[in-house]
From TrEMBL:
This is Ribosomal silencing factor RsfS. InterPro entries: Iojap/RsfS/C7orf30, NT_sf. It comes from Stutzerimonas azotifigens. The gene is rsfS. Functions as a ribosomal silencing factor. Interacts with ribosomal protein uL14 (rplN), blocking formation of intersubunit bridge B8. Prevents association of the 30S and 50S ribosomal subunits and the formation of functional ribosomes, thus repressing translation. The keyword Lipid biosynthesis does not apply.
C-alpha cells in the first residue's frame, strides 16, 4: 500500500469514530524514522483506545502489518507504528503538553477535512 493511501486509510478510520483535530505531517527528508505522522485527539482514555484499535483493524483489513503499538492500555497516548506512517492518538491535555505539531513545524502539515456535517 502506498504511503499516501495508508495515511488516508488511517485518517478515515479516525474520522469513523469521531477523532478530533486530525493532522497529517509530511516528515520525509526531516527524519529517517518515518515519512508521515498522523496526530489526532480523543476525548477520554476509552476514546483514545477505541480510535487506535479502529486504525489497527482497518489497516490489517488492507493487508498492512503494523510494526508495533504502544499505550493502548493506558489510553493517554497511543502510538501506532505502521512503518512509513506513525499514528499518534492522544487526549487533549497530553497533546497540548507534547505539542508535536510545533516540534515538526518546518514540515508540511495538513488538517483532515471532515466528510460529514460537524453537528
Amino acid at each position: 500500500m502506498q504511503n499516501e493511501s495508508l495515511v488516508q486509510l488511517a485518517i478515515a478510520a479516525l474520522e469513523d469514530l469521531k477523532a478530533q483535530d486530525i493532522v497529517n505531517i509530511d516528515v520525509r527528508g526531516k527524519t529517517s524514522v518515518t515519512d508521515f505522522m498522523v496526530i489526532a485527539s480523543g476525548t477520554s482514555s476509552r476514546h483514545v483506545k477505541s480510535l487506535a484499535e479502529n486504525v489497527l483493524e482497518k489497516v490489517k483489513e488492507q493487508g498492512v502489518r503494523p510494526l508495533g503499538s504502544e499505550g493502548l492500555d493506558g489510553g493517554e497516548w497511543a502510538l501506532l507504528d505502521l512503518g512509513d506512517v506513525v499514528v499518534h492518538v492522544m487526549q487533549v491535555p497530553t497533546r497540548q503538553f507534547y505539542d508535536l505539531e510545533r516540534l515538526w513545524q518546518g514540515a508540511e502539515q495538513s488538517r483532515a477535512q471532515h466528510l460529514g456535517d460537524p453537528e
